[in-house]
């Protein structure tokens, strides 16, 4: 992938897609969307209804994988890959690691003592209102045209946006580095809180 | 159907990129069958090689030189009683080996056996491979937990700690190889598995020799981390039999146990393929810069046929050396047939090589190229598979604290240092 081709891709994805993949039918058919979205919602329901924490965690993994499939459908393979490697492969393993040390028998018999369902109801109502409003005037909020097939250079484009030299390309460098600094502080905090003596 | 079948022939991209689902499916079946055969071979070679390392004979009874032992094992495992412990979590116990197997086999979609001999060429190839193979630990963790028993739980805890620790060093080693792909005129690297091998072709050097010894150091870190990732000796603490009986699969038997084994060997082949792709030039044959020209091309294209010829020769010698007692008559005939079969394959490959020489654009030449690519890739992976056995016969198992110390205090700093120095050198020379 040379720079000229990439610049062209940044300016006009449609041209790029036509050059790379003439006449190919899109893979992102409604069938896959409904399948992945259905799997995500169903396993999401399992996460909050199972009393056994390990079952919840396994259902959450299915949710995360379905969401990564949805990212693939949005022609964002890099985000999908990161979703798998960070959430499904990294964080969920640590989740399971911790849950396995808890005695499941006692936990499943215990009465739940967190009475915050009014807050949850309020939050989900607000989210529903947001979704409904976004759906009802979606055409004004989002550009109607579908993102053209730029997946062949998706990673390179993200790299250019994050670290590129030109003012237009590297516009997110500062925000990205701030986020990484925040993560570093969080890591240091976790280490200091767990290890009194370093 | 036929039109779809014919339209892909002669294409220069993997079937999934050409949008040909039929051929993608054919490739998936070929790869699945190939991996299954490789696991069978690996089973036999591992037992024989380990036996010879320890001055034993290994399996000798089932078939000539125990050649039918893997099949006997498979039949035994399939017919064995399948026990699920009474207090186990049935659903999770059932799902766990499937997770491991799926994670091990899914990554084969992006492994490049040749420039077009892969199921798919993804833009995020190596990221996809690392991500999906890291899901394999979920199978081990859930298996250990669902068994509801102490040894499996300890094995699962060890395994997750070990795999998470070594993944970090592994990922940094991979990144330093990816940095090398960007040393071209455009300055843009790639994550695509095929793109990585093509970058080595363009730069005219395998990344293991690039910026000597930086590439070698990154490769060495990956080669160590991948043994820990696949839970093989000397890092096989999750199934350390002297401490944990059989670790996370203590409660598993029969078919489910064999699924774990299949997943483990498939994962070993997969990580070896990553190492071959990133540092050893993937499907490229040795020294294409020095030994080029039509004559050398022809000589190298004879290699696959000669390899099978050599194997056939060994089998023939084995047939000749069989005791001439009547008791061995059937075994002798069987080994002879096996040798003849290997000889036939050798002959076929040699014919393809010679036929492809006449016309470089013919379908035979295309076929010869395909055979060459797959041959060199598989040969390099086979070296790694032998190394896995060799390590197992040579080194004693680590203690758990030593393992963690090596992972976090030795491998991680070295791989970080290699990454930084690689970046600096890359910027300086470009």
Strand and helix map with partners:
The complex is a heterodimer of chains A (198) and B (430).
Chain A: H1 3-11, H2 13-20, H3 30-49, H4 53-73, H5 77-99, H6 104-109, H7 117-136, H8 138-141, H9 154-163, H10 173-194
Helix pairs in contact in A: 1-2, 3-4, 4-5
Chain B: H1 2-8, H2 21-53, H3 69-79, H4 90-106, H5 125-134, H6 136-146, H7 150-181, H8 193-203, H9 214-229, H10 241-244, H11 254-279, H12 294-301, H13 303-321, H14 329-358, H15 363-394, H16 400-429
Description of the structure:
The complex is a heterodimer of chains A (198) and B (430). The model of chain A is unreliable at 1-23 (pLDDT under 50). Among the domains of chain A are: 26-111, Up-down Bundle (Four Helix Bundle (Hemerythrin (Met), subunit A)), CATH 1.20.120; 152-198, no CATH class. With 198 residues, chain A is mainly alpha-helical. Chain A has helices at 3-11, 13-20, 30-49, 53-73, 77-99, 104-109, 117-136, 138-141, 154-163, 173-194. Chain A is 72% helix and 0% strand. The longest helix of chain A has 23 residues, at 77-99. Helices cover 69% and strands 0% of the residues of chain B. Chain B has helices at residues 2-8, 21-53, 69-79, 90-106, 125-134, 136-146, 150-181, 193-203, 214-229, 241-244, 254-279, 294-301, 303-321, 329-358, 363-394, 400-429. Chain B is globular, with a radius of gyration of 23 Å. In chain B, helix 4 packs parallel to helix 11. Chain B has one domain (18-284, 380-429). Chain B is built from 16 helices and no strands. Chain B is mostly helical and 430 residues long. The chains are: A mainly alpha (198), B mainly alpha (430).
Gist?
Chain A is mainly α and 198 residues long.
């Amino acid at each position: 992938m040379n720079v000229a081709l990439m610049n062209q891709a940044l300016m006009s994805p449609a041209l790029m897609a036509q050059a790379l993949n003439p006449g190919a039918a899109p893979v992102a058919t409604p069938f896959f969307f409904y399948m992945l979205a259905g799997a995500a919602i169903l396993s999401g329901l399992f996460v909050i209804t199972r009393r056994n924490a390990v079952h919840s965690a396994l259902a959450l993994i299915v949710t995360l994988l379905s969401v990564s499939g949805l990212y693939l459908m949005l022609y964002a393979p890099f985000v999908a890959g990161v979703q798998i490697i960070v959430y499904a492969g990294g964080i969920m393993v640590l989740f399971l690691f911790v849950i396995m040390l808890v005695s499941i028998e006692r936990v499943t018999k215990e009465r739940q003592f967190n009475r915050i369902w009014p807050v949850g109801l309020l939050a989900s109502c607000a989210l529903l209102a947001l979704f409904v409003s976004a759906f009802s005037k979606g055409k004004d909020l989002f550009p109607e045209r579908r993102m053209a097939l730029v997946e062949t250079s998706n990673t390179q484009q993200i790299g250019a946006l994050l670290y590129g030299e030109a003012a237009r390309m590297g516009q997110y460098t500062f925000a990205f580095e701030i986020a990484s600094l925040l993560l570093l502080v969080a890591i240091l905090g976790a280490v200091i809180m767990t290890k009194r003596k370093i | 159907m036929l039109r779809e079948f014919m339209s892909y022939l002669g294409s220069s991209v993997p079937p999934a990129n050409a949008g040909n689902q039929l051929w993608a499916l054919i490739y998936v079946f070929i790869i699945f069958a190939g991996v299954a055969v490789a696991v069978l071979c690996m089973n036999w070679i591992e037992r024989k090689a380990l036996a010879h390392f320890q001055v034993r004979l290994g399996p000798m009874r089932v078939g000539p030189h125990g050649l039918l032992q893997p099949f006997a094992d498979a039949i035994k495992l399939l017919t064995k009683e399948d026990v699920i412990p009474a207090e186990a979590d049935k659903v999770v116990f059932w799902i766990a080996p499937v997770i491991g197997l799926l994670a091990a086999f899914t990554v084969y979609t992006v492994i490049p056996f040749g420039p077009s001999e892969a199921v798919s060429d993804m833009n995020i190839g190596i990221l996809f491979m690392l991500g999906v193979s890291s899901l394999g630990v979920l199978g081990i963790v859930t298996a250990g937990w669902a068994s509801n028993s102490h040894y499996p739980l300890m094995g699962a805890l060890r395994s997750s700690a070990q795999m998470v620790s070594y993944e970090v060093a592994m990922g940094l080693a991979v990144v330093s190889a990816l940095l090398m792909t960007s040393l071209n005129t455009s300055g843009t690297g790639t994550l695509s598995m095929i793109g990585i091998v093509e970058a080595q072709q363009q730069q005219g050097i395998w990344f293991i020799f690039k910026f000597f010894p930086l590439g070698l150091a990154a490769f060495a870190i990956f080669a160590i981390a991948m043994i820990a990732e696949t839970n093989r000796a000397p890092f096989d603490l999750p199934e350390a039999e002297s401490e944990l009986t059989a670790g996370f699969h203590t409660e598993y038997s029969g078919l489910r146990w064999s699924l774990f084994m299949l997943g483990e060997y498939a994962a070993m082949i997969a990580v070896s393929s990553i190492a071959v792709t990133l540092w050893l030039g993937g499907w490229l044959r040795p020294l294409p810069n020095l030994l080029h020209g039509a004559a050398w091309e022809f000589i190298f294209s004879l290699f696959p046929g000669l390899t099978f010829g050599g194997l056939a020769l060994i089998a023939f010698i084995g047939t000749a050396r069989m005791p001439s007692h009547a008791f061995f008559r059937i075994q002798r005939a069987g080994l002879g047939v096996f040798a003849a079969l290997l000889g036939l394959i050798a002959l076929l490959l040699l014919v393809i090589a010679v036929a492809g020489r006449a016309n470089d654009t013919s379908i035979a030449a295309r076929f010869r190229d395909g055979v060459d690519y797959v041959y060199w890739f598989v040969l390099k992976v086979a070296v790694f598979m032998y190394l896995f056995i060799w390590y197992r016969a040579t080194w004693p198992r680590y203690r758990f604290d030593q393992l963690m110390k090596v992972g976090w205090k030795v491998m991680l700093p070295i791989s970080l240092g290699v990454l930084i120095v690689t970046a600096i050198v890359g910027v300086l020379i470009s």
